[in-house]
Write a structure and sequence with these properties.
Chains A, B: It is found in: Cell envelope. The structure is a homodimer of 414-residue chains. Chain A is built from seven helices and ten strands. Chain A has 414 residues and is of the alpha+beta class. In chain A, strand 8 and strand 9 form a beta hairpin. In chain A, strands 5, 6, 7, 8, 9 and 10 form a six-stranded antiparallel sheet that branches. A four-stranded antiparallel sheet of chain A has the order 2-3-1-4, with helices on one face. In chain A, 16% of the residues lie in helices and 18% in strands. At the A-B interface, strand 1, helix 2, strand 4, helix 5 and strand 8 of A face strand 1, helix 2, strand 4, helix 5 and strand 8 of B. Bound molecules: protoporphyrin IX containing FE (HEM) (2 copies). The site of one protoporphyrin IX containing FE has 28 residues of chain A, from strand 6, helix 6, strand 9 and helix 7.
Chain lengths: 414, 414
């Protein structure tokens, strides 16, 4: 461990720093987040814009993710809920309470409109991102025709061990912030507003990010101890974002243009087995060195992996089934995804081990040709599969950003 | 929400700042943590001293707590384990890997001696604190005679709903740090070292502290939205620490002098019911205002509660069964405890709600006359009980600090 602080500590204590991000146009996203503000507690990320925040926003340190079942059968109630959520979400990302005078300034004889646990906390770069699952597009709300063809029920992958209680959902909400209490407060207040109309299906707390999403961010490490996110799509890669993340006009449906698809996988990592594997073996499984995170055969983290270079005996240095080969665009007809996952530790497994892992979140433009073949390759060939277990899964269509005066997902109801 | 950052951001980026704390003598603990360093990522808390760190250390933002069952039957193996743990714990609190060249610099053909996920992270004020549960003092290790009289099996309290899978344990280890990945890494590596000798019984991640333990720290909020820790014993209250926390020579047993007793209670909070309660009712249940945290009848958070002042109709402003009255030294023959709890959110409860609450951790000198009567009073009279459910419990004897050349709990084996 070196002395490099995870949160860069700068001579900086100002409030109200706005991070660019959500406001940028989908097709021309080129905002470079300044390293000086990336993780400052007071940072505010604009809620409205052409795209939703929380996708290309510099990945914050903490996440609280919830999947909800809609309980009301009324289309109008669903619409009002989305409108109420939009107001509350915008307020909270600005560092305000869920409603004006929400926690203590309102009618004292009534339940407070904000639950209060973030009262003294700054915005902490909070982003709140919504997505709609396949099940929302059934008969209940007249949305059947709106279901994007690409919003498939994900196939069963080899070795899947999915818990229905950790999978799917009509709606997902991802809250990310540099203070976990701010992220938890956001989800909790949205759930509270939805009381009677939605119920929590599952929720996941992530305590440490596993991906950098801008070139400025130091690459964090996952629970296998490896740097994760090195060759991720970054906010600066505008061509990749256009080609691999944002839904275009040609793709359709209309209501989703400027949106994307979110795939969540709760991946339990059998860390105690991993920890008994030699360093060499770990590095071969991943295809990178553990310390520096360099591709095997190269010296530095950001060197391009050379998938052809061979070592002794003509064996490729990055093995035929190394994780980074199987998941690489080179092996997948150019397919890429934007990863934005978090580490988790959910108590113990009842069998003497910690229940730890990676809450994998990825965004892509067409899961059928990006995430699915990638996970298909990994789940059939990747040696890493011996150490992991996919225990939860979700697939959600993430609408574009909210325009002035608009509300979350309004295009769905036009 | 105001612009006051939770982590005070100062023009300060130095590494290796040592926080005083563990080194001070138990009876004369008078160290005042400087606000300038309290939450700096690079802060290092000394591991050795007369008392263990992690009790009066300024409460860090995150906690990972584990309870372990000892699987070996050999006293010698238990002793070696405690020695190995001591080395690793001291290293990690200094911001180092669990072993020299642990993650990547050792023999590449062997499993690494450090799991690597904290490789680039600074010490983050990590403290690691050990405690021994009643079950350790059975026949297995010849420790029967060493069991402190005060280390009782906690009684069953009214409304207890304890899950054995979240309760008790032979050994507990509490890791607190300002970066959750650092705390999780510490526990995970100690568990790894113990492989075959100990098994994880339960573990709990806390994402936000609920108590301040020094006068400099802003009081954090719990999941009911109230400031928590206002009238806690603080590191500066040397008389209270002597009278209510540290085991003295007269108390005995010898091996525990300078130690204390830790009580853990996993308290599920039914936040969705609480959130439907009016502000007035919430404040009456607690006995304090929600915004400022002032005792009812007073203006400011740190005003002394006046338990006698009456309002309209001669009814006490702080009700007869207000939480802060029932738990006050005035109501409990002067009993006080040092609280050092954390908020948690563990996914959902399968019934449509978040599984959130308070992981209550308290230190006291004699749980029989401090925690037990307090919890007895609360569990029979406190209206707050309608909103909470105690789902886990633990009681541990926390040995004194580790001297130079010594190891965790060595007094036990003399
Ligand atoms: C616990 C499970 C996983 C772990 C520990 C893990 C770990 C890693 C690591 C260490 C890297 C190298 C650094 C980097 O470029 O980010 C990597 C790369 C990558 N992983 Fe994973 N991964 C996991 C699951 C997945 C899954 C489920 C997918 C998608 C289906 C995936 C897709 C990728 C991709 C696309 C890359 C970049 C490949 C390249 O172009 O070099 N990973 N992963
Ligand atoms: C979820 C459960 C609990 C919640 C939400 C809660 C909340 C609070 C709050 C808001 C205060 C006032 C501020 C302060 O002085 O810290 C307080 C005070 C206190 N609580 Fe709790 N508490 C809980 C459980 C417990 C338990 C289990 C105990 C011990 C058995 C306890 C002991 C105390 C004590 C000793 C005080 C200070 C009383 C005084 O001297 O003014 N609390 N608690």
């Amino acid at each position: 461990m070196t002395g490099v602080p995870r949160r860069r500590l700068l001579g900086f204590a100002g409030a109200g720093v706005a991070l660019a991000g959500a406001g940028a146009a989908a097709g021309a996203f080129a905002t470079k987040a300044s390293p000086e503000v990336e993780n400052v507690a007071a940072a505010k990320v604009p809620f409205r814009g052409d795209i939703q925040a929380g996708i290309t926003t510099p990945a914050q340190d903490h996440m609280h993710f919830v999947a909800l079942d809609v309980k009301t059968k009324s289309r109008d109630e669903l619409i009002s809920l989305l409108k109420e959520w939009t107001v509350a979400a915008e307020r909270m990302t600005a560092g305000q309470e869920a409603a004006e005078n929400g926690a203590v300034g309102g009618n004292a004889e009534a339940p407070p409109k904000d639950t209060g646990e973030a009262l003294d906390l700054p915005a902490s770069a909070l982003t709140i991102t919504i997505g709609f699952g396949p099940s929302l597009f059934d008969d209940r709300f007249g949305l059947k025709d709106k279901r994007p063809e690409r919003l498939i029920d994900l196939p069963r992958f080899p070795q899947d061990d999915l818990d229905p209680a950790r999978s799917n959902g009509d709606i997902c909400i991802q809250a990310c912030a540099n203070d976990p209490q701010v992220a938890v407060h956001a989800i909790r207040n949205l759930v509270r507003i939805g009381f009677g109309r939605v119920a929590v299906r599952w929720s996941q707390l992530g305590f440490g990010r596993t991906s950098s999403t801008t070139r400025d961010q130091a690459t964090p490490r996952n629970m296998f101890g490896f740097k994760d996110g090195t060759r991720n799509i970054k906010a600066e890669d505008t061509d990749h974002l256009r080609d691999h993340v944002w839904v275009s006009k040609e793709d359709g449906p209309d209501w989703l243009v400027g949106g994307t698809y979110l795939v969540s996988r709760r991946i339990r990592m059998h860390i105690e087995i991993w920890d008994r594997t030699s360093l060499v073996e770990q590095e071969q499984i991943v295809g990178r060195t553990k310390g520096e995170g360099a591709p095997l055969g190269q010296a530095n983290e950001f060197d391009e992996p050379d998938l052809h270079v061979k070592g002794a005996g003509g064996i490729p240095l990055i093995g035929e089934i190394a994780h980074i080969r199987l998941a690489s665009p080179e092996a997948l007809n150019g397919a890429r995804i934007l990863r934005r996952g978090y580490n988790f530790t959910d108590g113990s497994d009842g069998l003497g081990h910690l229940d730890a892992g990676l809450f994998f979140v990825a965004f892509n433009r067409d899961s059928r040709t990006q995430f699915v073949p990638m996970q298909q390759a990994l789940s059939t060939k990747d040696d890493m599969m011996e150490y992991v277990e996919h225990t939860g899964s979700g697939h959600f269509a993430v609408p574009p950003g909210v325009k002035e005066g608009g509300f979350w997902g309004e295009g769905l109801f036009r």
